[in-house]
Amino acid sequence: MPVWKISATLFTGTMVVALVILTVSFDTRHLAQINVFHRVSHDLHTSQRLVSKNWTTVGTKLAVDPVLAVDRFGRSQWKGSEVRPLQTNKSDEKQSPRSCQPKTNVMFLKTHKTASSTILNLLCRFGDKHNLTFALPTNYRFGYPEFFSSRSIKGFSQQNGRLYNIMCHHMRFRRLEVQKVMPADTFYFTILRNPVTLAESSYTYNTFLVPSFHRSASFVNFIANPWKYYQPKLQNSYLARNLLWFDFGFDHNANFSLQEAQIGVAEIQQSFSLILLADYFDQSMVLLRDALCWSLDDMITFRLNSRSTVARKHLSRAQEDQVKQWNAMDWYLYQHFNKTFWQRVESFGKSRMDQEVASLQARRKELENLCILQVRNGEQNKYGQARILGYDLNLNLSLPDKERCLRMILTELQYTDLLDKKQFPRTGSVPKQLVAKRSWQAPIQGLGVNKRSHVIWPLGRFKKKLLRGQGQHTPH
């Protein structure tokens, strides 16, 4: 046989063998991807449902690569458990070179009506992405309005002495009890809000939940003569007076005393490394990012559980003074930490702050344009008069982008269910009392709402539409 025929035959045989090997390799890897893809998707979609006549029906899934990897914290983990970055933000590293190590032990005191739901989402996304362990409540709140107790953590027992990476759900703060379950190097922070706008917001959200509110015709009517309507022993009275003071564990009904106020502030300063202000949210996010040593994309948030501007009441100067007098302990607290906040900004550097706020806002705008088709007023909330903002999610995205966008608008209850499913897989051996109960429901933003449930629909019949980037749209 001629030499050229032998060479051609060998070449052809080599190519066939190579193609077979590549095909088998691809099929095996693709099958592994599909298995992990469906496993992670099942965890997400069976733990939550988001469908309603008012919103766009959406379901999204993780794009995963089932290969063992090492994250930036030095821990081995399955990349399939990660949410891939929506877009690579190269300018983040150029603008802010990070020589520090990201903090992974974080305690956030979630105060009421202070944009704390938005921050909770930020913390949940970070911890979820890096497989950190959350201290989860058995009933969405840590026994609130009672003082926090380690017994209110799902799965915790004094015997195992377990510690957690992140704690961020509503509680009435008790430092010694929190320290039992958080590592010694935990970073403690919280957020405040001007008591004037906070009190008005609490009234609007909780009109029908607080008898003292419900008995008055309006917030202006209530604040003009609060003792006409307010009774300290009535249910949920803490929502009507010195709500911040109450969340920190102090007596919200105490008459103002400068000495008591100073003692309280000193205790808070001793407990918390950083006090943010909802009134200056972007500056707060810059300071928080600097303190935690997280990336810019980690700090990007969309407003959650936020009222539309239509629902907000504007008060006169005299009415504002009435609110401050009624919430005197909160007002003292806010004045003090407003001062320390701006001292911290000054130390950070004004020009540097302006630059980083601009970067934060620009990045948020990019993600809003990518993720959100429309921001709309939702239905009136269950316990009050507020109309909550909602989002229509853009479905014309890749699967990883849909997943990231979805997580950015998950509400507190939805993300809590997702983390609960991840940390406590449903098996026959799980004690019944450990399963998070749904004793109350909150309005849901975006992606569709089922009025009877806050849980995302399983993928089910929407699977093919989602894979094609389509969704079921309903009239606005």
Structure description:
The protein is an alpha/beta fold. Helices cover 42% and strands 8% of the residues. The chain contains 16 helices and eight strands. It has a four-stranded parallel sheet with strand order 4-3-5-6. A two-stranded antiparallel ribbon has the order 1-2. Strands 7-8 form a two-stranded antiparallel ribbon. Strand 3 (106-109), helix 3 and strand 4 (166-167) form a beta-alpha-beta unit. Helix 3 packs parallel to helix 15 (412-423). It is globular, with a radius of gyration of 25 Å. It starts with a helix and ends in a 9-residue tail after the last helix. The model is unreliable at 19-88, 90-96 and 428-476 (pLDDT under 50).
Task: Give a quick precis of the structure.
The chain is of the alpha/beta class and 476 residues long. The protein contains 16 helices and eight strands. Helix 3 (116-129) links the parallel strand 3 and strand 4.
Distance between the termini: 77 Å
* Percent range of helical residues: 40-55%
User: Helices and strands: which structural class?
Assistant: alpha/beta
The radius of gyration over CA amounts to: 25 Å
